[in-house]
C-alpha cells in the first residue's frame, strides 16, 4: 500500500473530489477526518498558507488545494485517466474544473443570503447553471465525453450538495425543465458506483447544512 | 510560423503572463489588442462565458483563462520548460501560480479602497507578501529554483505593476527591509531579457493607472 493520507472531511465537497479521484484510480489511502473548529497541528504544518482541507500527504509530502491535488493524482497515477491526452481537450476540461472552483461561492450564495441579495444570488446561480448546460455539457454524457473526467469530478458537488441546499432553502435552481441535460448529468454522475459509494450520508449532510443555515 | 494569435492588452498583467510564456518558448505570434470598453465580436465568440482577455487562439481554437493558457503552452511546446518534471515540484509551482491568481484582487485592494478599508487591505497585502517571502521563495532565486518558471510568470505582475500602484497611492508594501528576498526576486525577474523586452511602458502604465485611480 502507498503511504497515502488524506486530511479532510466527507462533508466537504472539496475533500470529496479528491476521494473520488483517488478511488477512480483504484488507490488505497487513509482518510483522516479533520475538525475544522479545532484544526490539528499537522494540518497547520502541512498547509501554513491557507490552513484548509483537503491536504493529500504522499510519502510524507503535503499537496494542498483540491484542484492541484487532482492534477497531482492524474500525473502520479496515470491509470484510468481523468484528463484527455490532447492538449486542447485538456485545456477545456481544466476550464470547467476551474469554473467549478471559481463559481462555488457564488452558487452557494442563495443558501446564505436573504431578501434582495438572495434574489440576486438566485439569478447568478441560474447563470452559472446555464453556462454549464449550454457551453459546458452540450450533448455529451459527461463534461469530458462518454466517461467521467476531471471536470465532472470538479463539478460533482453540484450533483449532490446543491439538491440538499435547495431542499433546506425551498428554492429550486437546477430544475429538469430548465436544464434537462445538466439534470441528466447529475443522475449519470451519481450512478457511477465509485461516486455512489463515496458520497456523504444524505440525512447527516442535511442535519449539518440545516444547522449552518 | 504557427497559426497563433493572442487577444489581449499589454497593460493587462494576465495578458503579459501569456506573452512572457510564449516568448520564453521562443514562439512567434500575432498580438491583437482588445479594447475592453468595446469588446470585439471575436472575443465574445471565443470566450462566451467570461468575455475576458487574454484568449490564445491556436489553429483557430480558443483557449481562455491565463492559468489554463500557461498549462496549454507548456504542454504544446515543451522546449524551455516552465514546469519541473517531478509531480510534487510541479504541484508546488502550480500552488504559487494559483496563489498569484487567487490573491490578485486582494493585493489590488489598497489601490481602490480608502480609509479603514484601505488600512485593512494594506494588512492583507502585507500578509500575501509575507507568505510569498517565507513559504514561497525561501532561499531560492526564483520560485521554481535557479531559473524562471510557471510560478514566476504567474506572479510576475508583482514585480512591475505593484510598484506603479504603490507610487500612485503613496503607500509602499513591498519594502526591501521587510521582504528582502522577494524584493531581490523582483529585480532578478525584471533583469531577464525576455521579461525586460516585454513589459508595458512605465509612463504609459502610470498614466492609465492614474486615470483609473
Describe this structure in words.
Chains A, B: Residues 86-213 form the GST C-terminal domain. Chains A, B: Residues 2-81 form the GST N-terminal domain. Chains A, B: It is found in: Cytoplasm, Cytosol. Chains A, B: This is Glutathione S-transferase. The structure is a homodimer of 213-residue chains. By secondary structure, chain A is an alpha+beta fold. Chain A is 58% helix and 8% strand. Chain A contains ten helices and four strands; from the N terminus they run βαβαββαααααααα. Chain A has a four-stranded mixed β-sheet, covered by helices on one side. In chain A, helix 1 links the parallel strand 1 (4-8) and strand 2 (30-33). In chain A, helix 4 (87-112) packs antiparallel against helix 5 (115-137). The mean pLDDT of chain A is 94.
Amino acid at each position: 500500500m502507498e503511504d497515502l493520507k488524506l486530511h479532510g472531511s466527507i462533508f466537504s465537497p472539496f475533500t470529496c473530489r479528491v476521494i473520488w479521484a483517488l478511488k477512480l484510480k483504484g488507490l488505497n489511502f487513509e482518510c483522516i477526518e479533520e475538525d475544522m473548529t479545532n484544526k490539528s497541528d499537522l494540518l497547520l504544518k502541512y498547509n501554513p498558507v491557507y490552513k484548509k482541507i483537503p491536504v493529500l500527504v504522499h510519502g510524507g509530502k503535503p499537496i494542498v488545494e483540491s484542484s492541484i491535488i487532482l492534477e497531482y493524482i492524474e500525473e502520479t497515477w496515470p491509470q484510468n485517466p481523468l484528463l484527455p491526452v490532447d492538449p486542447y481537450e485538456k485545456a477545456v476540461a481544466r476550464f470547467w474544473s476551474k469554473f467549478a472552483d471559481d463559481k462555488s461561492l457564488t452558487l452557494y450564495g442563495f443558501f446564505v443570503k436573504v431578501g434582495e441579495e438572495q434574489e440576486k444570488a438566485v439569478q447568478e446561480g441560474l447563470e452559472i447553471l446555464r453556462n454549464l448546460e449550454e457551453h459546458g455539457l452540450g450533448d455529451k454524457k459527461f463534461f469530458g465525453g462518454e466517461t467521467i473526467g476531471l471536470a465532472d469530478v470538479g463539478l460533482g458537488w453540484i450533483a449532490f450538495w446543491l439538491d440538499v441546499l435547495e431542499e433546506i432553502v425551498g428554492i429550486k435552481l437546477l430544475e429538469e425543465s430548465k436544464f434537462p441535460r445538466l439534470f441528466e448529468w447529475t443522475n449519470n454522475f451519481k450512478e457511477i458506483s465509485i461516486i455512489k459509494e463515496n458520497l456523504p450520508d444524505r440525512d447527516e449532510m442535511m442535519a449539518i447544512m440545516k444547522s449552518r443555515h
